[in-house]
Every structure is written in structure tokens, then in C-alpha cells.
């Protein structure tokens, strides 16, 4: 089975640039696709200094849903959005004041990869941070999901007026250019050895290094003080049921329409949900993913519905376990081509979150309303569209989303639907 490789290099243009991320792409592109992926053949997707987070999300989503192994090489810099203090991968147009709108939320990666089969996904990273992000990551290790292997390093800010080089990723690429792909841990070790001493750190600013579920600060390899297990970071947004979403497409083209916003929820829930409501050793998410890939949408929906009922009996209505399976059903309806059912589920989830006291700008709330908005735009029955549009308009008054114009779009579409009555 062919593999997929996603090469992503991103950094801001101008004085906000901390690392020359795109400089590593020619070296990676010179590696044979089969060596990059570890498969006989591979599809290569390259993103060099992308401008829009939605473009990155689209490519990531396509790679995450492709069959076969997936390997990602991510080079760039991390910055925090000022409101929710969440790490974002800075893109070409990102400035400190526009992170929330122009950068790519790091947790989207875990959200998109969470339903992939365990052991099928590897992410290599070479990242710089600004000062705020560096301080945050000292207590909140970077993650890409519990079933994804993460290798690489996160480095502190370079000296002022200095643009750093992605030395670790360049070393990985150079090693692979030999045509030999060693075991990933060995490749990681060799890349660290090649970069040792190249960028001496200031006191208290040793790189954060990651290797398949473990992290530590500084060198040499292996760490003298042993490993620290990477766990899901604590939330900085108002407490809410951790419900990671599956994939959803972009909103239909419209003036200033908001893109769908995957939630900033902890990335360990799928495994927890499987243990809590599934039979011993079962993997409901894996079974659902397989059913969707085989086109057995009714089977996937039935399995999710059964898990939801089990969670309801075990944990009660409104519990995080129940909401998780409701959200899974909403996405499954989308995959099955049933936008009405999907829209209803997203609207219900948004209402539940708001009724539970979550803020209107909480990532999970915005995500649910944005996705309901997207699915509503695909409903072909004018009667059903008018019914759900009225409910969506009421929600949009409370949850305007990240960009202006969403409520106006709903109202405009409702007026058009009225003329069709």
C-alpha cells in the first residue's frame, strides 16, 4: 500500500521570522519518496510558507484520511494566540497580534490524526518558539495525539535579529538522502548527534526533545535524567467536556465566512472512551474508521450509536463520554452524505455546551456552530434548510465565530430560501 508524506515548512515573512523553515524543503524533496515514507511508493504533499490556515487544514485532512502510513515533516515556529494561550504554527502572514486568525492551531494536528490506526503515523518536528510559547511549553509538553509517534525538537527563541536554521530537520533529510531509512529512533538519535554543539543554548534554555511519547530537556542522548512521559496539557480555556472532533470540510465560499475550527480538547480521549465504554481490547474508533473507508456508513453510525447508549447508561446525559459519541455521529453523518442529520447533531452539541456554561468563544462551541453552518449550507430540501437555518441564526447571534459576516450569511440565505417557498 502506498504511503503519504506531508512536508510542511512555515514561518512569517519579515522581522517576525525566527527560523528559515523553507530552506529545508529542497533537502527533503531530494530524498526518494519511498525513503521518506518507508513504503514502496508514496504520494508527496509539499506546503512551503502557506498563507492561510484553512489551506494547511485541507492538505492535512486529505493526508490524514488517505490509506496507508503517513509521515509528516513539520518545520517552523510556534506562537501563542493572545486570548486563549494556545500554541499555533505561524504562517507567512502571522504577526503577534494576528496569531488567532492567521496561524495554524497546533492542536488541529492531533484532532485530524486521532482516528488513524495506531502505529500508522509518524511526525518529525523542528520548531522554534517565541518567548511566551517557550515558557508555556516548559509545563505543557507538545503533543500530536496518543497513537502518533512524535520525534524531533522544539528550540527556544534565537538571539535577537537572528534567523535560526532548522538544523535538526536538515540532519534528518541529509541522513535519508543516503537512500537508507534506519529505524526511526535510530534516525532521531543520529540527527541529534549531528546537531550537537551547533547551537549552544543559553542557561535554562536547552531544547525540548521528543521521541515516541517521551520528552526531555537538553542533551546528550539519551537523557541523563531519564525520560518524562508526554501527557495531554492542561486546559487554558473554560472547563468543558473533552470532545475531539473528526474531519469536516471548509465552509462554503461566502463573504467573510468563518472556517471550521477543530476544538482544543485533550488528545487522549479516544483511547479513554474505548476503555470506558467498549469491550476489553476493543477499538471502536478503529472499527468505525474501517467501516467508513469501506463505505459501510450505516454500520459505522450503528456502532457509534451503540457506544453512545452504553456511555449514557454508564455516565449519564451530558457527560463527556456521551458528547464524544454524539460528535462522532455528527461527522459520520457528514461522511455518509447526510448534511441534515449532521447539522442537527452539531447544533445540539453547541446548545448543550452553551447551556453547560461554556463561553461563546470556547473552541468547542465555535467549532460546533461552524460545522453546523457548513452542513446547513449543503441541505438540499428548502423546508428543512429553513427550519434549521432559523435555529442556526439564533445560535449565530450568541456565537458569531472568528470572522465577521457569519450571521449575515445565514440571514441572507434564509431570505433566499423564503423566496423559494
Helical content stands at 40-55%
The geometry reads as globular
Second CATH tier, the architecture of the largest domain:
3-Layer(aba) Sandwich
Largest sheet: 10 strands, mixed
- Tell me the radius of gyration: 22 Å
SSE string, helices as H and strands as E: EHHEHEEHEHEHEHHEEEHHHHHHHH
Structural class: alpha/beta
Residue-averaged pLDDT, rounded?
A: 79
Uncertain runs: 216-281
Span between N and C termini? 50 Å
Q: How many domain regions?
A: 2
Descriptive report:
The structure is a single chain. It contains 16 helices and ten strands. Strands 1, 2, 3, 4, 5, 6, 7, 8, 9 and 10 form a ten-stranded mixed beta sheet that branches. Residues 216-281 have low confidence and may be disordered. 43% of the residues lie in helices and 14% in strands.
Amino acid at each position: 500500500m502506498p504511503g503519504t508524506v506531508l512536508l510542511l515548512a512555515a514561518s512569517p515573512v519579515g522581522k517576525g521570522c525566527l527560523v528559515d523553515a523553507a530552506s529545508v524543503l529542497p533537502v527533503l524533496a531530494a530524498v526518494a519518496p519511498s525513503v521518506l515514507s518507508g513504503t514502496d511508493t508514496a504520494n508527496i504533499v509539499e506546503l512551503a510558507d502557506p498563507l492561510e490556515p484553512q489551506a494547511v487544514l485541507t492538505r492535512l485532512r486529505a493526508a490524514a484520511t488517505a490509506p496507508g502510513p503517513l509521515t509528516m515533516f513539520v518545520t517552523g515556529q510556534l506562537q501563542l494566540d493572545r486570548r486563549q494561550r494556545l500554541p499555533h504554527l505561524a504562517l507567512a502572514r502571522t504577526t503577534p497580534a494576528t496569531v488567532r486568525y492567521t496561524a495554524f492551531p497546533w492542536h488541529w494536528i492531533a484532532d485530524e490524526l486521532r482516528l488513524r490506526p495506531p502505529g500508522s503515523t509518524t511526525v518529525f518536528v523542528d520548531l522554534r518558539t517565541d518567548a511566551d510559547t517557550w515558557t508555556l511549553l516548559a509545563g505543557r509538553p507538545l503533543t500530536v495525539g496518543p497513537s502518533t509517534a512524535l520525534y524531533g525538537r522544539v528550540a527556544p527563541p534565537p538571539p535577537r535579529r537572528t534567523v535560526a536554521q532548522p538544523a535538526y530537520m536538515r540532519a534528518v533529510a541529509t541522513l535519508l538522502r543516503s537512500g537508507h531509512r534506519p529505524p526511526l529512533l535510530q534516525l532521531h538519535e543520529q540527527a541529534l548527534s549531528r546537531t550537537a554543539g551547533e547551537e549552544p543554548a543559553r542557561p535554562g534554555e536547552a531544547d525540548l526533545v521528543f521521541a515516541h511519547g517521551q520528552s526531555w530537556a537538553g542533551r546528550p542522548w539519551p537523557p541523563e535524567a531519564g525520560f518524562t512521559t508526554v501527557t495531554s496539557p492542561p486546559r487554558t480555556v473554560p472547563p468543558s467536556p473533552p470532545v475531539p472532533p473528526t474531519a469536516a470540510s471548509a465552509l462554503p465560499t461566502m463573504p467573510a465566512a468563518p472556517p471550521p475550527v477543530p476544538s482544543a480538547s485533550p488528545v487522549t480521549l479516544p483511547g479513554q472512551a474505548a476503555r470506558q465504554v467498549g469491550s476489553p481490547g476493543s477499538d471502536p474508533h478503529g472499527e468505525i474508521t474501517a467501516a467508513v473507508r469501506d463505505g459501510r456508513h450505516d454500520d459505522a453510525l450503528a456502532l457509534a450509536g451503540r457506544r453512545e447508549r452504553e456511555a449514557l447508561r454508564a455516565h449519564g446525559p451530558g457527560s463527556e463520554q456521551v458528547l464524544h459519541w454524539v460528535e462522532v455521529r455528527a461527522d459520520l453523518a457528514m461522511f455518509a452524505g447526510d448534511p441534515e442529520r449532521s447539522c442537527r447533531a452539531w447544533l445540539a452539541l453547541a446548545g448543550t455546551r452553551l447551556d453547560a456554561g461554556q463561553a461563546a468563544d470556547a473552541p468547542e462551541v465555535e467549532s460546533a456552530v461552524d460545522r453546523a453552518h457548513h452542513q446547513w449550507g449543503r441541505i438540499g430540501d428548502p423546508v428543512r434548510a429553513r427550519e434549521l437555518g432559523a435555529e442556526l441564526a439564533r445560535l449565530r447571534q450568541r456565537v458569531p465565530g472568528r470572522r465577521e459576516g457569519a450571521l449575515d450569511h445565514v440571514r441572507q440565505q434564509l431570505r433566499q430560501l423564503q423566496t423559494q417557498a
